[in-house]
Amino acid sequence: MAGIYIHIPFCKSRCIYCGFYSTTGLELRQRYIDALCHEWLLRQQELKESLDTIYLGGGTPSQLTDKQLQQLFAFLPIATTEVTIECNPDDVSASYAATLAQLPINRVSMGVQTFDDQRLNFLHRRHTSAQVLQAIQHLRHAGIQNISIDLMYGFPDETLDDWQRDIDAALALQVEHLSAYCLMVEEGTELYRRYGDAGVRRFEESKEESERQMYELLIDKLTANGYEHYEISNFARPGYRSRHNSSYWHDVPYIGLGAAAHSYDGQGRQWNIADILQYIEAIEQGCIPCEREELDEDTHYNDRITVALRTSDGLDLTTISDHHRQYCLKEARQFLADGLLTMNGQRLALTRKGLFVSDMVMSALMLV
User: Fold this and answer.
1) Which of 249, 266, 282 is the endpoint of a domain?
2) Is the whole-model pTM more than 0.90?
């Protein structure tokens, strides 16, 4: 089963931590939607399997008008199980939620980040904590029964009690899915420019132990409340794993449409140019402005290590070559003995202890 990712790069304003390609040039929205539809016409033959999922990510897809969303879905094939749109809470009015429910969309992912209004202001988020509850109520009333929210921890001066209040507030919403990420200072963002190189290093070092405690608390609280910890940063109620994101972790092909969107067909990776005007102009000329990288067996093995081991399912050793399986098992021996990895049949997975040093374990299993 395959998926389609559609990158909607428009934002009303930029958050200081975001490293994804985006633009505040909202006047380009209609030309961009026209280009997306044209790109799909140019690439639809790439869809070799039945379509399982569609994911509209960003940027802020909820900055599209109702008419633009309707135009987009009039061109796309219908996914069989899951169609997700990312939204900002302040964009979700009662009428907007009703529009989503009339489209093939059956899953909404909202960037909540925190329920502390001062921290929301620090991040340059547009919404308030009160608007999160209002958005959830609008979506439920419209019939959307699969809602995911994103949370963030590791803020400057954040305490464990602060983080517990955020988790408790999230649990009170009774959403089906929750993703949680530690605040990282990525190069090229406004947050990075504020700190500078030395400041970034000090910030990351200062929160290393508190970050671990916050992650422990997150796992304990969510699993105690019935959520399955199925990927390093993702938790779901039974039956509500993100099918689209799971395709990335389980080596399933997907097509990426739009500026800066990535695609994968099992043999290689492809990515469109990260420039909205150049993307639009090329598509209008009937060209797809992209680069491609063919994957050799070693690169494919390394990719499998870095994505499959993020999941509770782990790496299915029967899906890799004998050569890579033998190498992997040899390198994994000490981690198995130390309780950082576990073997269940032919599946190699991180233990809870291993989650906290996952980057180190994965690096050791990869071919140099």
Assistant:
1) 249
2) yes
